[in-house]
Design brief:
Elements: E1 2-7, E2 10-13, E3 18-26, E4 33-39, E5 46-52, E6 60-61, E7 69-74, E8 79-84, E9 93-100, E10 113-114, E11 118-123
Parallel strand pairs: 2-11
Antiparallel strand pairs: 1-3, 3-8, 4-5, 4-9, 5-6, 7-8, 9-10, 9-11
């Protein structure tokens, strides 16, 4: 089993920045990739960003956040970060960390582990 714990959410204003963290524990060696999804009220959970544990792997992003968000990892700490800059009200959602075994983090239906979520609210 793998346990994921998110932190770093909060209430910010338009244009501000936040950094989310997701610490993994347990059988982390079994996972291939980690990433972030978000879910706004009344909407489906959507992919935000993902990254593989391989040292040569770059992150991959949803078009809606490309150029504003950056995903990174610290393999030694089994932690993935999401740096969110130039935040907009439409970024308001609960952000979930996820991990997969044997595939990229892209489809919420195919993620193997989930964190409990952290609220990000961007006021206009």
């Amino acid at each position: 089993q793998v346990r994921l714990v998110e932190s770093g959410g909060g209430l910010v204003q338009t244009g501000d920045s936040l950094r989310l963290s997701c610490a993994a524990s347990g059988r982390t060696f079994s996972t291939t990739a980690m990433g972030w999804f978000r879910q706004a009220p009344g909407k489906d959970r959507e992919f935000v960003a993902g990254i593989n544990w391989s040292s040569w792997s770059d992150g991959y992003y949803a078009d809606s956040v490309k150029g504003r968000f950056t995903i990174s990892r610290d393999n030694a700490k089994n932690t993935v970060y999401l740096q969110m800059n130039s935040l907009k009200p439409e970024d308001t959602a609960v952000y979930y960390c996820a991990a997969t075994i044997g595939r990229p983090v892209l489809d919420p239906k195919r993620c193997d582990y989930w964190g409990q979520g952290t609220q990000v609210t961007v006021s206009s």
